[in-house]
Amino acid sequence: MALNPVVAEVTARIVERSRATRADYLRRMDAARDSGTGRAKLSCANWAHAFAGQTIADKLTAMDGSKPNIGVVTAYNDMLSAHQPFERFPEVIRKAVREVGATAQVAGGTPAMCDGVTQGRPGMELSLFSRDVIAMSTGVALTHDAFDAAMMLGVCDKIVPGLFMGALAFGHLPVVFAPAGPMPSGIPNAEKARIRAEYAQGMVDRTTLLASEIGSYHSPGTCTFYGTANSNQMMMELGGLHLPSTAFVHPETGLRDALTSAAAKRTVELARSGQGRMADVISEKSIVNMIVALLATGGSTNHAIHLVAMARAAGVLIDWTDMDQLSSVTPLLARVYPNGSADVNAFQAAGGVAFVARELALAGHIHSDVTTVMGQGIEAYFQEPSLVDGELVWRDGVKESLDRDILRPASDPFDKEGGLRLVQGDLGRAVIKVSAVKLEHRIVEAPAAVFETQEDALQAFKDGKLFRDVVVVLRFQGPKANGMPELHSLSPALSVIQDKGFKVAFVTDGRMSGASGKTPAAIHVSPEALAGGPLAHVRDGDIIRLDAEAGILSTVGVSDLTARPLAVRSPANAHGASWGYGRELFGAFRHVVTTAEEGATVCFAVPVSGGGHTDTPPHPNFVDRTVDA
């Protein structure tokens, strides 16, 4: 089927906007490729250092000089359930590549923090910045320049975007991502949400809450709701960086190890062929495909930030208007918690990624003429793997959904448009995830209750001060202020207010987890309050209108919001956001980080105060709002 005209229009606009930055990126990748393979550039002493710790057999293979060497970057730790399986992956990879006459080395590791552990804690203020640290760590690992291709081992929230950004700095190489898969299903998501809400109201004790949470998060593998981690995996599939349908295979299975082995061997094939370099796989078209896949499945709002930074790493410039316009024509094909009651295991059983890929391609919602690690075209991603007599085989995925309460065709979607929208007005620009918000809750007009910290807002809830029609405004939560933490701890409280029959909305320059949904939330408000954004002018009692249907985020009856003096963050909160729990190490990040709509990143050259300059042009929407934190 012909490409949807809006998809074609948005893609063309991105191509034109990115012309200079994309050309510069490809020029640099071409130069790196043309300089020859890494092992040919290293002196004998360099090469000896690179293999000094390897087995005799691997040293002999390396000494041949013509055999590919695969660099593995891993985000393994055994605190993250999703990353615990990566402990065994390097040996699986080494064994696989030896079978095809190559070598593999763990080139380096990256940090991998768990937002589930740091929710509501000071460590959450390092979470978003950890993405850029991961990108830098990936660059450090690969800069040994001893590799013919690379494999990335990561799953969760900031980790995959960071690996993606760092790997693109070495886009002259083929790069394959190998996930670990989700844990088996635990207690039903509706039951988990019920107990959280009861705990927020003091109806059950901490022991009951802990038992519920352990029933949800109980084994190795990714958390099973459709938050940022699993949204990452959907995007890596439709971006062409996974082997097909590998995202949602459990880690403790023979099939998972077979897929990891196959990914390693495919990486060697790409290295030998000189095809499938990451710079060619990730293009304007594949970025659009990733956005559409996210929208069609009601994925995480965090990617309204991450995707901008990820695309920029490939020289591609996107913004929230692009996402909003794509959302207007993207059918919502999936209902996965928090957008429904099912988890990702049920989603996979109903048809999974292969079904979504086929439906989007055949209906003209994604570009089929893309390069992937499987070759030319998206069609390979219509297939699913299985083990037959111990051998990995690929078959066409199901052509009909096996559960239409979870997964539907493009011809009969849950909604005619995707789950993400842009809202804007005199309060700035923000995004809202509407796929989990019922129609009757999508328009809220109510007095503001303004807070500086999540703790203050929660205390007001506990004191009974928010049980009314209210728009909770939480400011000074942007990347410059405190690293832009997720504010998921507020979700149960806000849902309780809404369930009492009150109109409630949330407006913040911070982030809200991909696990959040049923309460309307205008998040990532840009520019942020600390940089002089409009939220710094809002006062308690101001009437605020959040209209997700019309795309409005504004005050009502305020003639000139910016004529008011800016609110000043209290000294205690300013100091608390700068020191302790490692936050003092990230002062430079807070000072130079770009806006949320520019990806909230420190990785790319941007204008700086005091006459600095860049070697590549900034995003056209960029305004230098650098301030002292």
Task: Give a description of the structure.
By secondary structure, the protein is α/β, with parallel strands linked by helices. The chain is 37% helix and 13% strand. The chain has 24 helices and 16 strands. Strands 9-10-14-13-12-11-15-16 form an 8-stranded mixed beta sheet. A 4-stranded parallel beta sheet has the order 2-1-3-4, sandwiched between helices. α10 (189-200) packs antiparallel against α11, α10 (189-200) packs across α22 and α12 (228-238) packs across α15 (284-296). It starts with a helix and ends in a 37-residue tail after the last helix. 57% of the residues are buried.
Strand order of the largest sheet: 9-10-14-13-12-11-15-16
State the end-to-end CA separation. 51 Å
Q: Quick one: biggest sheet?
A: 8 strands, mixed
User: How many DSSP helices?
Assistant: 24
Estimated share of beta-strand residues: 5-15%
Q: How many DSSP E strands?
A: 16
Q: Can you give the helix content as a percent range? A: 25-40%
- The Rg value, from CA coordinates, equals 24 Å
Content-based structural category: alpha/beta
Mean pLDDT: 91
